[in-house]
Design goal:
CATH topology of the largest domain: Tetracycline Repressor, domain 2
Structural class: mainly alpha
Distance between the termini: 59 Å
Order of helices and strands: HHHHHHHHHH
Strand content: under 5%
Helix content: over 70%
Radius of gyration: 19 Å
Number of domains: 2
Number of helices: 10
Length: 198
């Protein structure tokens, strides 16, 4: 069931990136996935819902479970492995399907050209981000609004976007995950500097 739902969303995003949201029909989407219209509407109420996917199709549950369980025992407050554990989670996601992530990049470019899609993303994006932040805060035993958590997560997510850009533009044999770690390493060269002059 989830596999079919994910296939619908992936193909909808590929078609959106290639033709624009108005440039394909539900029938064409169904034909590409190999399902009937009836099956499509069992999963999604409308084409735009298929494009943005189901809430349960974000980070896989097994990956989230590993992240939540990886906090060291006996620690108070922010754990010393939080950054490494989050990076491991992001790397796992990047390793799962490089091709799908590449097509998603074209989809996000299309979103910013189309008001209907942009409006939906402005609504859905923060909601999903807030849920992710709640999970991290729960693991760390702090408020979801903790500025350090927000800064860390936004930095890691921005590094993901930069890594995808570099990966798609490069002829290198580096994997997407390797590109991501390279971007983070470049960032650490700056973040490791003192905050003030001595």
């Amino acid at each position: 069931m989830q596999k079919t739902r994910l296939s619908i969303t992936q193909h909808a995003r590929e078609l959106t990136a290639e033709h624009g949201f108005a440039g394909f029909t539900v029938d064409q989407l169904c034909a590409g996935v190999g399902i009937s219209r009836r099956t499509f509407f069992n999963y999604f109420a409308a084409k735009i819902d298929a494009v943005f996917g189901h809430d349960d199709d974000g980070i896989p549950a097994d990956a989230l479970d590993r992240f939540m369980a990886s906090r060291p025992a006996g620690i108070q407050g922010i754990s010393p492995t939080l950054q490494a554990d989050l990076v491991a989670l992001f790397v796992e996601l990047l390793n799962r399907d490089e091709q799908a992530i590449g097509s998603t990049q074209g989809f996000f470019a299309a979103v910013h050209r189309e008001p209907e899609l942009l409006e939906r993303m402005i609504k859905v994006g923060p909601e999903r981000q807030a849920e992710f932040m709640k999970l991290i805060a729960q693991r760390e035993g702090v408020e979801a609004s903790h500025p350090g958590l927000e800064l860390l997560v936004h930095s890691l997510q921005f590094a993901t976007f930069k890594a995808v850009d570099r990966y798609l533009a490069s002829d290198s044999e580096r994997s997407l995950a390797e590109e991501y770690l390279a971007v983070l390493t470049m960032g650490r060269e700056i973040y490791s500097q003192p905050l003030t002059r001595s």
